[in-house]
Each structure stands twice: as C-alpha cells, then as structure tokens.
Amino acid sequence: MKKTLIIILFLQIFFLSVSDTKKSVLAEDQLPSWDSGIREKIVSYTDMVTDPKNPGFIPESERFAVFDNDGTLWAEQPVIEELFIIYYAKKMIEKDPSLKNKSPFNRMNDFYSNGKFVIKDRRVFDEIVGIVHEGMTNEEFQKTAEAFFRETKYPGLNVPLEKTVYQPQLELMNYLRKKGFKVYICSGGESDFMRVISEKYYGISKEQVIGSELVFEYNENTNVMIRRSKLYTDNNGRAKAVNIYQRLGRPAVFAVGNVRSGGDIYMLRYSQASKYPSFQLLIDHDDEKREFLYSESDNISLEWAKKYNWNVVSMKNDWKQIFPK
Amino acid sequence: MKKTLIIILFLQIFFLSVSDTKKSVLAEDQLPSWDSGIREKIVSYTDMVTDPKNPGFIPESERFAVFDNDGTLWAEQPVIEELFIIYYAKKMIEKDPSLKNKSPFNRMNDFYSNGKFVIKDRRVFDEIVGIVHEGMTNEEFQKTAEAFFRETKYPGLNVPLEKTVYQPQLELMNYLRKKGFKVYICSGGESDFMRVISEKYYGISKEQVIGSELVFEYNENTNVMIRRSKLYTDNNGRAKAVNIYQRLGRPAVFAVGNVRSGGDIYMLRYSQASKYPSFQLLIDHDDEKREFLYSESDNISLEWAKKYNWNVVSMKNDWKQIFPK
Questions:
Q1: pTM to 2 decimals?
Q2: Which of B6, B10, B207 shows the shortest C-beta gap to A249?
Q3: For B21-74+165-318, CATH number?
Q4: Does B14 touch chain A if contact means CB atoms closer than 8 Å?
Q5: Strand extents, DSSP E, chain B
C-alpha cells in the first residue's frame, strides 16, 4: 500500500516536471467544442478567480457552479422526465390491461401526434404523473428509472438518452472541477430521477443534485421511504434562487441555464448576489439542424441577459459539436 | 508554484517512508478523549469499511456521517439558539425602549428564574422567535448571529460558546474525515444560525449543514433574500430521516445523536437502511459534575438503542474530557 503511494507520488512529480503547457493551450484542449470567443471569456474568468494575487480571487471552498438540466445539460424536446411518465404508465398497463380502458390511461394516445410526443392536455398528463409517483419506495423508483434509461431511445434523434447530453457542457463541467469548482445541478426535474444518471452522465454525485422534491413518508419499522405524488419543493423560477441558498448557504458564483420558459432567470440573476465575481451562461436553442429551434413567447431570458450582462451561448455558432460521438 | 508542489510531494514521500504506526496507536492518538471500549468499536468499524478487501467495504463516495448539533456537538442546557433569541430581543429593546412595555417583550423576565434561563411559557417565547426572525436579509442575520457568538458567554459554565463544544466529537469528526467520510450536521437548529459557526467550530462547511429552514423571499431587483418567520422545514423527528435522504440521495452510514427528546431516533434508525454496514452513537447526558444530568421522560432513545443495537456513549464513563482546553 505504502509502496504504491510512493510510486504514485513519483509519477506525479514526473508529470509535473515534463508538463510545460500554457494556460490557453490547456483550455483549448479542455474545451475543444467551444468557440474561441466564449471560451476565452470562460478562461479569463477562471484565471481571475483561481489566482490568489488577483483581487477577484475566490477561495476554493467558495467556488460553486450550478447547471440547469433540461435544455442546459441535455435535450428537452421532448423533456426526458415526461417520456419516463409515459414509459411507466405503459408498464402499469402491461401489468394490468384493464387500466387501458380507464381514465386517465384511456387518453394516453393523445400524447402522440404524427408520431411526435406532444402534451395537448396538461391536466390529463398531470393526473398520470400523480399516479406514477404515488406509493413507490425510493428503491423501487430507482430501479424503474434505471430500466427506463437502459431501454429508451430519444424520439426524433433516435439515440440512447445518454447521447442527448451536450458535449460542450461535459467539457465545461470537467474544466470547472479541475479549477476547484463544486458542480451542482439545479433543475426543475425531480431529484431522484436525475440522481439515477447524474454520476454516470455528468460526473455529479447525488448530494450535488438540487431538484424538485416529492413528499416522502418515512416508516421506521420497515425502514423505507414511500414517495407521495405531492410536491414538497417545486424547484423552478424564484424557488431556484431560494433553494440554492438553502442548500449551499451562499449564492453559486457560476450559473448556467437556457432559454425556454424563463425558469432559469432567477438562478442566473442570483449568482450576481455573490460578493465574489460571478459568471452567467444562457444557452439559446437556435440550431435547427443539429438540435432543435425554439424560443420564448415573452423573450424574458434574453432580455434579462442583456440587462444584467450575461453571456448568451448560440448553440449554432458557439458550439462546434452538440452531442457526444 | 511547480517547485513548491514538487517539494510538498517529496515531503509526503519522506513522511510515508518514516511513519510506521500501527492502526490502534494511530486511533489512540486521534481519539484521545474516548474511552478505549467505545474507541475500539469505532476503529473496528472504520477499519472494516475502508478496507477494499473486506466485504463491508464502503466506496469513499458513499461514506456520509451525520451529527445532531444541540446536545451532540455542543451543550444544550440551555439551547444556544434560544439564548440568541433573547440576545436579539434585548438588542431590539435597546434600539427602541418603548418595546419594553409592550407584549411580548414585557414578559421577557419570565425566562430567568434565580438567574437561570428557563422557558416557562413556550407561547410567549415563540412569539418572540417570530419577531426576531421576521424580515431580516440573510446578510443582516449572519452579522447579528456573528456578534452574538462573539459577545455571549454560556450561562452556568461561564465560558465563550465555542468552549461548550464537546472535545471527543471534534476528535471523532476529524478522525472520520481522515477516513474519507463527508461529515454533515443534521439538526433541528435553524440552518443559517449553525452555518455562522459550523466551519469555525466544527470544520463543517456551510453546504454540509442540514437544519430547520425558514421561508425565504427572493427579490430579483435588490438581489437579496428576506427571512420570514414561517418554518419551511422543521428538521426534527421523522423529518430528519427524510431530509437526509432529500439532501444526500441515500442514507448516511454513520449517525450520532443524543438522549433528550427522542428527536434523533429516526435519524439513527434511518442509517440502518443503508445497504452498507452502518454505525450509531447515542450520547447519554449522565455526567452531572462535568456537564449536565438529564434524561427523557419516556426513555425512548435508550429503548431504541437497545432494540436496534446502537452504541450508547456515557459521557461520564466514555469521555475522558468533555470540553476543549
């Protein structure tokens, strides 16, 4: 054991001695899918906050980054958690075919229009959400969600779900971790659903996932938690700012969200409450060819980006590659 | 920079080469305030879970420890957060003396009986709690609580509050961290109150504090959070088990609580839901001379300790030293 450690330490010395890379070269290697313009902004920020001689220096213990999930880390046309709801409802019908003729299951075909997944009636869908989430133990839920991720392909793209993750974001999260940042997810998605894949897809451990939370009932005799369909925390909008504070005890200095519903603007804005220099990225889905083209009816995210000086990322122009190969 | 790193690595090699300590000796050095009986149980557990060849091995990423705070990490006769409420109410009266004759402030003397702090009327006290917590920004609250910790001595013991922390627990938390555990607080105390001292007193960073939470209102124009006196999460009893799961995404394997109200039994019990070997410590306040003597009316904590095979720590017999020197 001790010998192994000594060998590892010698190897570290060896690599420290032979490496002579400049910062910019390193960044290009580490963020190859990012266009140089936005990459330089990221690098100049991290250079500043990691340099103890710079007035903008941030102690390592205070370096927190938060990423939204749907539309920021992976595709959201359709939202993957909504696919899971349909997946699970179908499993329920397989087990008990009589459900097929009962409400709300008898209206499930409504979600597909010309083979595309569209939620026309949100109330019917929410009814099914309630049924799916009600009464499972957390272990059962994990297994079910794991099976979903194994078995499902993404509509339209026809790839496994892991391949809908954005390559540039994988690079960015790794880059930030190397710079001493603790990287968190802060998403409207349900915590346990994201935790099933957060480590595998993103390298984010379960305790660094901030999401919407269901009410749980703990039974001390059986020592299990039962999931209830009632929301305890709806982690969207202003709640994202509040929950970041409740979880971290301070603002995160690096925040990444996307244009779609305005759901990330409070999270991005709140990073600017830090006493340290902060950095904001807003992902704009403007790449019809390689991903999806969509925007907001009220344009609020882009307006706030302008007002508060956030960096807007054009997927079309700023990302050389969208999905992992 | 690179040179310094190389020197540090050589020093590491040097110390690895000259050190030849046996595990038990090391534990005695690291847990000197613990009686050998309970210390051996702790060491044998950590030896097992950190040994990759042992079937009880726990990957480092899964090693979580949770400690209650009041009565587990520091004294709770009286509860320090209650002293803060009185401290702040007095500050309010200093600023506006007319409050002195108004309810509930005119009944504040009720809390002292023969110079001892006693809450006779919980409703009056709760009214004051509501007033104290209402409407401050989180920055204002932090500053106020910091001043309280600087200025306050603990009644009865007549020492600064930092000296009411239990020395054996400081040793235990350091020991666990060296063994790769992430150490969290899980307490009924309000999160922000504990976060003011968690790093300084315990070496626990703010994001590793799980506590009761107030409702916060976020204002995106001023970019501040306003504290409301309403509880969002009351982190006591069963809620401790649920909140550990919500925060960590799995049970903590090492749990420490104390006898007083039965408030920690669910937290201790829930650690046994882990798929890995777990360890429980229940602190019994049986040392009238060096600390305080108190128990529970229904004895439920000690009963569960017996039923579920937890380790009971007698402060009198198992702790050689109570407070730091």
A1: 0.91
A2: B207
A3: 3.40.50.1000
A4: no
A5: 64-67, 112-113, 116-117, 182-190, 209-219, 224-233, 254-258, 279-284, 311-314
